[in-house]
Each structure stands twice: as structure tokens, then as C-alpha cells.
């Protein structure tokens, strides 16, 4: 394991609390008046530079795949000949969307990403290694951050993995936060066993009533109180952020001085080596409204914080998060804010399960009766003035009025009540990647959600999240968002076996990106553990990674059933229960899907090999 550098401390106050500063001259909210100016200049520049650096990566990857009757030089010639290279025009534009699903999704999702990484020799041998390095965007529902910031990984390593963790007091509530790990090197490669020992600690007890958790609560509350005394709204999310930071941020001050915007100062970001991370969440108007198709989607990225709604698409620099604005501008007496984007706070706000109506301090006290009474007596009520309110709404008095039910729902809300992005049913965070101006050609949707009858049994996906997004795009308000047709999850989806194999959606719908759907299913072991399960044995973790490798590469491990560390059925029984592994060369078919939109733009017909692949995998 490489040396772990300290995270970058950038808080202007020198602590967790933000400060007020004079607003920049002519400061105003950036309004994306049409789909053609949705991207900010800094995001656009980042993707352009990363795409420029990926030409050789594409050539290396395609040489390994060795597609039949395919000219690699011709494929990249436009990118090489142009003075500038544009993703989605000159080279394929790939995004990865990682679902929620607790620790089940943590292990399984990381296993799939490991199988797409060119630093994994087994992945290279299977023909899937390198796809991760070609990816321009990666999205998560809850707390998408880079652990080269928040865990301080040696910048000489080269693995990129996306890791989920439970987010509330060391994984004690419902779901999902995740963070990116950007390691860059060909040597000193950390094993997943060491990751578990140093980062995940899944084999340790994670009880919220255990002393290791309980003893942190007073300091967490005191930190929130300091922010409150500085004149800023606080909530239980501010308490949660302290606990999260202790597990994610390699910092002597437990992350109190580390900002989400610090991602911009990392070597990986400066060198355009990492996918552009987008963390998304939704909100409840006034903290109580139901979440539905019309609920705004908010996104955090290293450059901006923004709202994505049919009647308002607007952004502010993430550095100015927390500033009070009216109609997109500061008022005469109001100053701007710096340091509000504390990394732990952003993660906690975007994974806010406390946003559910009725989940107030009393229900929290019922969850933790003894700890609540002893620890929060005399200080809790003073420290936390609202269980949900988190930050100023920078889009106050912007967008169309919602009086007729069609405008921006939070136009009249001075504060935002951010909520876990999955509450609306879109457990796969596809929405940011579907924005037309981002020009995604392909989205790899990795689904570890639990769509069975119970989150405690049969926790496998059945495509519900895909269907939810599809139905949303059929609403009149979202007619500009193109998404391929998805079969009904109540019948056709499972009848076709789409829940037990990779599938391509939108192969011939050239207005939408191709969705490469990789669901969690049985390959060599059961991976349907309960969402509430927080402790895993090392044998279970190893088995999860082998199963995920099988999903991503469409190969089965050797028939050594003792490699998993626990009793298993006979190999014949396992093979009978597994989803299908086809004889078609999966690595070539996967490559066909990744390049198809660019092939079309280059006016090159699909090869016979790719036509056969699409006949097999397109749903």
C-alpha cells in the first residue's frame, strides 16, 4: 500500500464553519437558457482536455480487442486530424452511473470497476481492462468524491474505483454514499483486501450504539454548534458530516478544513486523468413535499452547484455555495460565503435520509434511545434548530412561478432541504448524463439496487430504476431528454432474462445514448444480501468480487469452489442457478457498443461482427 498523503485543507476559516466575504464584482447565477449552454466553461475545458489525452488510450484498447474488419487508424483519424477534439463528436463519450444499494453495492460495484480497469491484469486478459480509463463522466447518488482528497492516496498509483459506503454514523441507516478513489500507478497497487482493512473495515462491528460510534457524537454536535454561532443554518447533516469525514478524509483535523472544491487541486484532476465526478440529490419543498418526477435534481461537481429542472437550469460556482441570492444576484446588504462546501457536509447533504417527513429529532431519539438521552441532553436542542434545513437556496426567485404546478418548485423557498437522490425511484443516477449538451454516447449503468419483494431477501435488481427514468422522459416537461425504450419490469423485462445478463438499450435509437446495463445477478455466488447488512466476512467480500468480475467480463472463475472461504453448493448446482454466459465474444460486443455512435458519425457501417453482437445483446 502506497503512502497516504494528507488531504488538502482549504477552509478559509481554518475550521468547519464557513465565512462571509465580499461578493465578486458583477456576481450572478449562470442560467443555462438552452441545452447548448448547459455546461460551464470549466467542465467543458476539462472534458475537452481529457478527450485529447485519450486518443492513444482508445488505440491501445482497440488493439487488444482486435475487432474483425475494423480499421483503428480510420476510427481515430478525425480526432488526430482536428485542431481540437470534442467528446461525443470526434471520439466516443462514455459515462458510468453507479446505483445505490448499501454495502452490497459497495463491494459489487467496486468489483465491476476493477474488472474495467487496465491496471488489473485479469481485466486486461478478459478484454475489459481500459474502459475505466476511457470514461469521461461518473455519477453517484450520494457523496461522490475522490478519496485522493478524502483519504489521501499516494498519487503515484493508477487504479480508479468507485466505492459505496453507508453514510450515517458509520453505515447505520438506509443507503448510500459513495466516493471515487483515484489511484494512479503501475506498481504499489493496493489489493482489495488492504482496501477493506484500511478503508472499508467491513469485517468490523459497525453498530451505531457501539462505543466507537457513540463517543464521537458530542464532538460532532460541538462542531455543528460552531457553524450555527457563525450565523449559518445547521441540521443533523452537520453532525453526520463529522462522522463521515473521520472515515473518508486522511486529515489530522478529521476533514473539518477539507472542501469538496479541493478536488480541483489534486494531481489527477489537474492532469485530467479522472472522470469528471457528479454527485446528485433531490429536495423536498419546505422539507415536507413528496418527491416525484417534478422534484428538482441538484448536482455537485468540482466546479459548480446547479439545479436541473424543466423550468430552470442554473448554476453557481461551488465556491459560493451558501450565499444568499435573490433573483440570481446578491442583495445590497448581503455578502457572499466561502467554505460552505465542506466535503463531509456535501456528502451528508446528498445522502440525506433524514429528509423523510417525520424523521425528526424524536424519531432519531427512538432509534438511539440511550445515546440520545445521555449525549444530546442540554446540547442537542441548542445545536440543531432544524432536522432538514441545510443551506440557502441560490435560485430563490428564479425560474417560472410554480403557482400553476409547472414552474420551479422552490422558486419561493429561501432554503434548500436536500434529500437522497434515490428517493424518487431513480436509484441509477442517469439524469446528469442524459443532458443533451453533455453529449454522452454510452452510459454503463451498474445496478446493485434491491427490486425484489423485500430489501432483506432477494435483493437483486429487475430494471425498475431504468423504467422509472424512461417513464419520466415520456412526460411532456422532459420531452427534450432522449432515453431508449425500456421493457416493462412487471413482465417483459424478467421474461426476456434482462435481469440476469448484460443488455444494450437504444442500439438503433440514435437520439439517445446506448445504455449498457450491468445488473447484479448470480454468477458464482449469491450477491443479494440485505441492504441493511453492514458486516461481511473476508470470504464473502472475496466472493462478491469474483461474482462482479464474472458479470463485467462474462467469464466464470475456475471450478475451485474452495476459493470463497465458506461452504458452497456443488459447482453444477451453481452453474444451474447462474445467469447465462453466452458463447459470443463479450469483449468484442462490449467494444462494439462503446464505439457505435462514433462509427455512425464517421459514416462507417457496422461490421458483420458488431451486427451479430447487437442481435444478441440489444433489447
Automatic annotation (TrEMBL):
GO molecular function: phosphatidylcholine lysophospholipase activity; phospholipase A2 activity
Stated family: Belongs to the lysophospholipase family.
Domain of life, per lineage: Eukaryota
Domain (PLA2c) ranges: 22-619
Gene3D superfamilies linked to this entry: Cytosolic phospholipase A2 catalytic domain
Name of a matching Pfam family: PLA2_B
A GO cellular component annotation in the UniProt record: cytosol
EC number of the protein: 3.1.1.5
Keywords assigned: Glycoprotein, Hydrolase, Lipid degradation, Lipid metabolism, Signal
Enzymatic reactions: a 1-acyl-sn-glycero-3-phosphocholine + H2O = sn-glycerol 3-phosphocholine + a fatty acid + H(+)
PANTHER family reported for this sequence: CYTOSOLIC PHOSPHOLIPASE A2 (PTHR10728), LYSOPHOSPHOLIPASE 1-RELATED (PTHR10728:SF33)
PROSITE patterns referenced in this protein's UniProt entry, alphabetically: PLA2C
Listed name of the protein: Lysophospholipase
SUPFAM superfamilies: FabD/lysophospholipase-like
Enzyme class label: hydrolase
GO BP, one annotated term: glycerophospholipid catabolic process
Amino acid at each position: 500500500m502506497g503512502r497516504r498523503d494528507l488531504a488538502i485543507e482549504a477552509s478559509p476559516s481554518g475550521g468547519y464553519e464557513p465565512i462571509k466575504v465580499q461578493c465578486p464584482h458583477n456576481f450572478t447565477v449562470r442560467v443555462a437558457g438552452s441545452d447548448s449552454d448547459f455546461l460551464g466553461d470549466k467542465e467543458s475545458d476539462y472534458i475537452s482536455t481529457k478527450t485529447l489525452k485519450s486518443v492513444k488510450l482508445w488505440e491501445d484498447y482497440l488493439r487488444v480487442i482486435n475487432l474483425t474488419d475494423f480499421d483503428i487508424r480510420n476510427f481515430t483519424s478525425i480526432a488526430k486530424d482536428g485542431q481540437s477534439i470534442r467528446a461525443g463528436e470526434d471520439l466516443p463519450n462514455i459515462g458510468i452511473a453507479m446505483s445505490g444499494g448499501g454495502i452490497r453495492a459497495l463491494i459489487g460495484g467496486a468489483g465491476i470497476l476493477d474488472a474495467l480497469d487496465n491496471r488489473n491484469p485479469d481485466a486486461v486478459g478478459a478484454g475489459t481492462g481500459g474502459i475505466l480509463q476511457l470514461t469521461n463522466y461518473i455519477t453517484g447518488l450520494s457523496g461522490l468524491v475522490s478519496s485522493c482528497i478524502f483519504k489521501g492516496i499516494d498519487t503515484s498509483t493508477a487504479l480508479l474505483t468507485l466505492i459505496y459506503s453507508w453514510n450515517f454514523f458509520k453505515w447505520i441507516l438506509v443507503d448510500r454514499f459513495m466516493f471515487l478513489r483515484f489511484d494512479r500507478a503501475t506498481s504499489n497497487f493496493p489489493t482489495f483486501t488492504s482496501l477493506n482493512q484500511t478503508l472499508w473495515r467491513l469485517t468490523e462491528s459497525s453498530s451505531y450504539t457501539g462505543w466507537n460510534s457513540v463517543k464521537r457524537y458530542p464532538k460532532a454536535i460541538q462542531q455543528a454548534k460552531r457553524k450555527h454561532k457563525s450565523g449559518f443554518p445547521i441540521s443533523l447533516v452537520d453532525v453526520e458530516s463529522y462522522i463521515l469525514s473521520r472515515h473518508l478524509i486522511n486529515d489530522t483535523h478529521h476533514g473539518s478544513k477539507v472542501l469538496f472544491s479541493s478536488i480541483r487541486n489534486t494531481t489527477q484532476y489537474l492532469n485530467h486523468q479522472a472522470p469528471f465526478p457528479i454527485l446528485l440529490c433531490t429536495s423536498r419543498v419546505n422539507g415536507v413535499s413528496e418527491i416525484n418526477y417534478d422534484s428538482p435534481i441538484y448536482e455537485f461537481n468540482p466546479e459548480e452547484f446547479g439545479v436541473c429542472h424543466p423550468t430552470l437550469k442554473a448554476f453557481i460556482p461551488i465556491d459560493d455555495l451558501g450565499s444568499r441570492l435573490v433573483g440570481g444576484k446578491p442583495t445590497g446588504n448581503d455578502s457572499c460565503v466561502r467554505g460552505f462546501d465542506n466535503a463531509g457536509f456535501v456528502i451528508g447533504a446528498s445522502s440525506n435520509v433524514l429528509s423523510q417527513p417525520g424523521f425528526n429529532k424524536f424519531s432519531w431519539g427512538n432509534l438511539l434511545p440511550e445515546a440520545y438521552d445521555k449525549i444530546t441532553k442540554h446540547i442537542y436542542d441548542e445545536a440543531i434548530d432544524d432536522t432538514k434545513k441545510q443551506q440557502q437556496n441560490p435560485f430563490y426567485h428564479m425560474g417560472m412561478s410554480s403557482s400553476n404546478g409547472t414552474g420551479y418548485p422552490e422558486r419561493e423557498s429561501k432554503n434548500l432541504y436536500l434529500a437522497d437522490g434515490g428517493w424518487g425511484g431513480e436509484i441509477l443516477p442517469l439524469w446528469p448524463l442524459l443532458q443533451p449538451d453533455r453529449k454522452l454516447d454510452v452510459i454503463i449503468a451498474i445496478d446493485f439496487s434491491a427490486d425484489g419483494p423485500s430489501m432483506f431477501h432477494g435483493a437483486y435488481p429487475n430494471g425498475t430504476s431504468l423504467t422509472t427514468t424512461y417513464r419520466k422522459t415520456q412526460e411532456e416537461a422532459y420531452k427534450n431528454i432522449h432515453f431508449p425504450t425500456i421493457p416493462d419490469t412487471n413482465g417483459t423485462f424478467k421474461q426476456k432474462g434482462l435481469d440476469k445478463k448484460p443488455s444494450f438499450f437504444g442500439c438503433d435509437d440514435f437520439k439517445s445514448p446506448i445504455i449498457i446495463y450491468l445488473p447484479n445477478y448470480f454468477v458464482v455466488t449469491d450477491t443479494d444480501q440485505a441492504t441493511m447488512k453492514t458486516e461481511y466476512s473476508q470470504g464473502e467480500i472475496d466472493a462478491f468480487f469474483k461474482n462482479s468480475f464474472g458479470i463485467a467480463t462474462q467469464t466464470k472463475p475456475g471450478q475451485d469452489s474452495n476459493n470463497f472461504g465458506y461452504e458452497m453448493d456443488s459447482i453444477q448446482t451453481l452453474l444451474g442457478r447462474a445467469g447465462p454466459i453466452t458463447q459470443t465474444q463479450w469483449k468484442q460486443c462490449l467494444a462494439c457498443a462503446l464505439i457505435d455512435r462514433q462509427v455512425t458519425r464517421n459514416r462507417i457501417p457496422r461490421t458483420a461482427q458488431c451486427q451479430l453482437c447487437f442481435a444478441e445483446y440489444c433489447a
